[in-house]
Amino acid sequence: MASSRAVPFSLRLAIFCASLGVFILLWEVASIATGNSLILVGPVSVLKAMVGLFQNHIPQGALGLQSADAAILQTLATIVFGFGLACIVGIPVGIVTGRWKAAEAIFDPWLNATYSIPIVVLIPMLYFAVGADFFAEVFVTFLLTVFTIIVNTQNGVKYVSNALAEVGKSFGASESQYIAKIILPASLPDIVSGMRIGMGRAILGAILAEVLMSGTGLGGMMMTFQALLNTPYMMAVVLLIALIGVGVLQLPKFLERRLFRWKETESISREMRR
Amino acid sequence: MSASRLRYVALSGTLVAFVVIWWGIALAVNNPREIVGPVETGTAFIQLFTDPPLTWLLAGALQVTVTSILLGFSLAAVVGVPLGLLMGRYLIVDLFFDPWVNIWYSIPAIAFVPLTMNWTGVSSTSSIAIAFLIAVFTIMINVYGGVKNISGSLVESARAYGASQTQVMTKIIFPASLPNIMVGLRLGISRAIEGVIIAEMVFSVVGIGGLMDSAADNLQLALSGALIVVLAIISLAFAEITKYATRRAVVWKESQALIRE
Fold first, then answer.
1. Which residues, 6 or more positions from A245, have their beta carbon under 8 angstroms from its beta carbon?
2. CA trace torsion B210, B213, B214, B219 (10° rounding)
3. A128 touches chain B (CB under 8 A)
C-alpha cells in the first residue's frame, strides 16, 4: 500500500489515460485487421451506435424495442430496489448472526451453502414461481445480493476488537447501547465494503434476470441485438452495462478510501470476498 | 469431537428444515406448474440415474459442464497468478494494469455472454471463455493483494543477503503470498462455476445449465429441480476440493480468510 500511496494522483491519472489510449488504439487496429464486423467492431462504430441508440434510431428488425433511456431506467430501478431490499434484510440479519452464537449456528450452514452453490441456478425455477415481471427481477437481484451483505456484516460484527467490547461491557453499556455505540461504528467499514461487493452482485442479478426472464431492460436489449447479429448496437449496450458497473462500483470505493482512512480493513486493502 | 458433532447436528437440522419448508411451500401453493415439491424432485433425481436415455443425456452434459469449468479455471489460474505476482512486485506493471483489472472486474459476467456468442458461437468454447474472463480478475486481485501485504522486511533482508530478483520471487514472494493465492483460486473456481452455468443457461443447448433451462422451458419442473441438485453437488464438490487443497498448501499459515470460511 505504501508504495502506491507515494505515487501522486496526477501521475496515476496520466498513466491511466495513456493505457486507455493504447487500449482504444489496439481495439480499432484489431477491428480493422479482423475486417469482420460480426466478430469485432471498432470503438468508432460502437460510439456511432451508441449515439444512434440515444437518438432512438432503432435498427431494422428491432421494432417494439424499448428506447435506450427507458431500458436504462428500468435496469437501474431493478438494481436499486433489489439492492435496497437486500440491505434492509441483510444488515440486521448479519448483525444478529454476528452478535449471537445461537443465531450463527442456525444461519451458518445456509450461508456456507450459498457460498459454494451459485444461486443463479435457481433462476429458471423462479421464473415459474414468481413470473417475469418487475417484481421477479427485483427478487432475483435481492437473492443474489443478500447473502454477500449478510456474510460481510457478520464478519465485521464478529471481529470487533475485544478491547472495544470489553470497555463497553465494563462501563455497563446496555445491549442496545452496546450494539448502537460500539458494534455498529466499529463494523461500519466492513458493512460498507459488503454493500459495495453486494452492489456488483446486484448489477449482475438485474441484468441476468432481464436476459433469462423478462427480455426487457438493458439485458433484454443486449440479447435482442445479439440475436439480430447487429454487433455495433450490441456492443453499445454492452458498453452501457460496463459503464454502469464501473461507475457504480468504483465510485463508492473511492469514497470508501476517503471516508474510512482510519480503518483499512482487510477487505478494503485486500479487495475481495465474493 | 463435540464441535464436529455439533456441526453435523446443525447441518442435518438445516437440511431437514430446508426440505420441510420447501415441502410446506409446495403444498401451500399446490400447483406443479409453479413450484415442484421435494418428492417429485427426488423421484426425478433418481430417474436421472436409472432411466437410460436420461442418464446418457446427463452424462454428456455433465462431461461438458465439468470440463468447461476446469478448463476455464485452469486458464485463469495460469494467466492470473503470474500477472498478479508481477503487479504486486513491480510498480510500473501495477500502474499500467490496476485500473484495467478494476474496470474489467466491475463488468457483470453476463455482459461477456453475447460477445463470446459472436466469437465462438453457442458452444462450450464460449462457456470456457466466460469462466476464464470472470475468474481471471478475481484471481489477479487476490494474488496482487497478497503480494502487496507481504512485509517489506522480508524482501529487504533477502535483498541485503544478495538474493536475485528471481530468488526473491520464488523464495520470498511466492510462499509468503500463497495463502492469498489460494483464497484467490478458491473464489476463482466458484466464479468460474457461476460463469459456466450462466453461459449455459443463456445458450440453453449445452451442458447441465442448458439441460436445466430447456427442461424448465418444457415445463418439466421436477427434472429441472433434479438438475439443480446435480449442479449443487458439483459446486459443493469443487468447494470441498479447493478447501482441502488450501489446507494442504498452507498448513503453516491459517490466514483469517481461511479460518472464516
1. A200, A203, B106, B107, B108, B111
2. 160
3. yes
Residue with cell 543477503: B161
Tell me which residue of A40, A24, A50 sits closest to A237, measured CA to CA.
Answer: A50
Main-chain phi, psi angles of A55, to 5 degrees? -90, 10
Alpha-carbon gap, residue A187 to A265, rounded angstroms: 10
Q: Which residues contact A10 (CB under 8 A, 6 or more apart)?
A: none
Residue ranges of alpha helices (H) inside B90-151 are 91-106, 113-120, 124-148
Query: In this complex, do B107 and A219 lie within 8 Å of one another by their Cβ atoms?
Result: no
Asked if B148 reaches chain A (Cβ–Cβ under 8 Å), the answer is yes
* pLDDT at position A170: 81
Cβ-nearest to A118 among B197, B202, B213: B197
Instruction: Choose the mutation target among B65, B110, B148 for the interface with A, i.e. most A CBs under 10 Å.
Output: B110
Hey, are the CB atoms on A207 and B180 less than 8 Å from each other?
no
Q: What are the tens digits of pLDDT across the range B209-238?
A: 888 888 888 888 888 888 888 988 898 898
The domain locations on chain B are: 1-35, 38-260
CA distances to B84, B125, B149, B169 from B165, rounded to whole Å, are 16, 38, 18, 6
Residue A91, Cβ neighbours under 10 Å: how many? Answer: 22
B41 at the A interface (CB within 8 A)?
no
Asked if residues B225 and B40 have their Cβ atoms less than 8 Å apart, the reply is: yes
Q: Is the dihedral of CA A93, A94, A100, A103 positive or negative?
A: positive
Q: Write down the CATH superfamily of domain A41-270.
A: MetI-like (1.10.3720.10)
Would an 8 Å CB–CB cutoff place B9 in contact with chain A? Answer: no
Q: How confident is the model at residue B258 (pLDDT cuts 50, 70, 90)?
A: very low
Could you tell me which of B33, B148, B132 has the C-alpha nearest to residue B85?
Answer: B148
B38-260: what CATH class? Answer: mainly alpha
Q: Are B155 and B172 in contact (CB under 8 A)?
A: yes
Which ipTM was obtained for this model? 0.81
Residues ≥6 apart with Cβ < 8 Å to B65: B196, B197, B200, B207, B208, B209, B231, B234
